[in-house]
Amino acid sequence: MVATNNATTISPVYLDRARSIAGEHEELSRQLAKGYDAKIARKVGELNAAASALKKWESASKSLAELQELLGDPSTDPELRTIAAEEIGGTTEDLQLVSKQLTRSLVPVHPFAHLPCLLELRPGAGGSEAGIFAGDLFRMYQAFCRRHGLCASILKLEDSEVVGNENQIQEAVLEIEGEGAYGLLRCEAGVHRVQRVPATESKGRTHTSAVSVLVLPSFPSTGSDELGENSFNDPSSDYYIDPKEVRTDVMRARGAGGQHVNTTDSAVRLTHLPTNTVVSMQDSRSQPKNREKAWRLLRAKIAQTRREAREAEMAQMRVSVVGIAKMGRGDKIRTYNWGQQRVTDHRSGITLHHLDNVMEGGDSLDEIMQSVRLWLTDRDLEALAADEDASKGTRAAS
Fold first, then answer.
1. Count of beta carbons in the 10 Å neighbourhood of residue 288
2. Residue range 159-186, pLDDT digits in tens
């Protein structure tokens, strides 16, 4: 008999889901052995964690059941009983660990997780200090990408006057290429708050400023097999934008940038009329290149907005069942306190006193981000449980 400890038992619904995933993983692996297919290979990779965790859970469950049977049998040899008593604690802990791994592995992979991403930074409250902190975060993410072997190119960078030795960023967009970049960085979306003495502060007072970080999936210039059924030409997909609903304005570039500024109509502004979403691009001297970049950013924003609208609707439905709510991108998610050399993430609750390492994009930033991914996974598990409760209620009422 398997232990009845809540930490080691798994809902039959979850076990059924895990076994279904394992079966699909086995079938797709057989197909892949006959010939390589990129879509199948990606799907096998997505299912591997759950299939592997199920094997570990079944092995640990069997071991614990055997130990409990030995301890419950009066005829068990005394020496064997002693060994079983010594091993049952560790085996129970192992089962608790793999139970948690299995349940977390059942959370569906985010549909955009495999894509590259666009990371946008905009200073919020805090005046010039917010613009300076936006520059700090911009360099932090560049360093993080270098450490992880991700190519981070500047899609858009608008800065203003220099304060002291620091540039203020008004808006910046990094295009981060690499398989799974969106899945790696989507946990960074939200409001990042900084508490420190600004360079312009003469009386040594600590100020609070904020920067908004938006993480968007980056799509190919045209629909491709990689996006499968979510083609740019399918009106029912998140990626589709009707060109008739987009107003295009061309204008002369503004600000510092060389001789082409204010002499050629190279800047492009796109407005998606149904949502009033506006993007502008003037980084290149070439109007076609600016137009292509602007379309890429607009498509990413619209697809993300549609996805978030569906998630918000589902979250609202789940709140009515068990009171689950997610923290949105407009909420304060993290605080960087210079005086205490402290970084606190307000979602996972983790606090580290390695501020310099975090701002260098080092291992401490990895630790914080991983804690948030686990937090997000646990929220998704609560959502799965809410769906299960809702399904039970529907079945009971029918």
1. 10
2. 866 556 667 898 999 999 988 899 999 9
